[in-house]
């Protein structure tokens, strides 16, 4: 109780000092906490690019793409994070791939086209992607052939969930061969048709709610309190999780 009382006294002192300032910006103090506005800088999308699968597709979850710096003398890479919450069947392996085109305007997975392969690697008669060898991906694998690079999404959980991370230095978010504005497809076991598809794009708060995942929300601190407390607080919370 003593510590709680001291904390209240300190907070009261901070608030009193802030209120005493004569040059407080009226706009800044209108709302002490204000949601951060989306940035107009396209680079701000990097790190939040993904394919959201909603219940409407029968599969719920999200697959994100985050660029990672390899550091001095190291190759940059792309981290692919898979978080499927439900919709796949235990005991089966589901092929997955990045397709050339977007999903059709009415959700038609058939409009996604062929696997992304700008270098024509998959067209060779002796196509042999070197699975598990990231240094050889660009030379031996179609860019979007994720199953050949990492294997199928093999489901071992009763609820059909899958979680995993993969590293792929051959994928990029910008340029002619970018994965953005393509689609990600989960195929039926054995490659017999498409089970679910989703566009790869910038994710939103609404996407997080729809896929049943978690997201980080940024709160900016404005006004006179900014001189006493940290300027930015990061708060993570789950949306739509059962």
TrEMBL record:
Renumbered to this chain, the signal peptide range is 1-20
Q: Which residues form a coiled coil?
A: none
Gene3D superfamilies xrefs: Superoxide dismutase, copper/zinc binding domain
The Superoxide dismutase copper/zinc binding domain covers 59-188
Set out the biological process GO terms recorded for this chain's protein.
superoxide metabolic process
Q: Looking at the keywords, is Signal present?
A: yes
State the Gene Ontology terms under molecular function: metal ion binding
Q: Which domain of life is it from?
A: Eukaryota
**Keyword field:** Signal
What is the designated name of this protein?
Answer: Superoxide dismutase copper/zinc binding domain-containing protein
Is 4Fe-4S one of the keywords UniProt gives this record?
no
């Amino acid at each position: 109780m003593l510590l709680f009382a001291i904390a209240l006294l300190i907070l009261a002192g901070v608030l009193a000092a802030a209120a005493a300032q004569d040059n407080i910006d009226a706009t800044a103090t209108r709302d002490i906490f204000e949601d951060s506005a989306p940035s107009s800088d396209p680079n701000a999308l990097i790190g939040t690019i993904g394919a959201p699968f909603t219940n409407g597709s029968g599969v719920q979850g999200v697959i994100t793409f985050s660029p990672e710096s390899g550091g001095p003398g190291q190759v940059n890479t792309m981290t692919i994070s898979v978080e499927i919450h439900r919709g796949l069947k235990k005991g089966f392996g589901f092929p997955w791939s990045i397709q050339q085109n977007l999903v059709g305007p009415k959700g038609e997975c058939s409009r996604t086209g062929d696997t992304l392969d700008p270098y024509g690697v998959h067209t060779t008669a002796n196509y042999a992607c070197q699975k598990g060898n990231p240094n050889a991906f660009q030379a031996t694998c179609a860019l979007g052939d994720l199953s050949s690079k990492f294997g199928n999404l093999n489901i071992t959980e009763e609820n059909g969930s899958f979680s995993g991370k993969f590293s792929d230095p051959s994928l990029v978010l910008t340029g002619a061969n970018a994965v953005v504005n393509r689609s990600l497809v989960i195929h039926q076991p054995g490659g017999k048709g498409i089970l679910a598809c989703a566009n790869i794009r910038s994710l939103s708060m609404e996407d997080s709610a729809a896929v049943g995942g978690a997201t980080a929300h940024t709160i900016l601190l404005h006004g006179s309190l900014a001189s006493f407390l940290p300027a930015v607080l990061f708060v993570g919370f789950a949306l739509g999780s059962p």
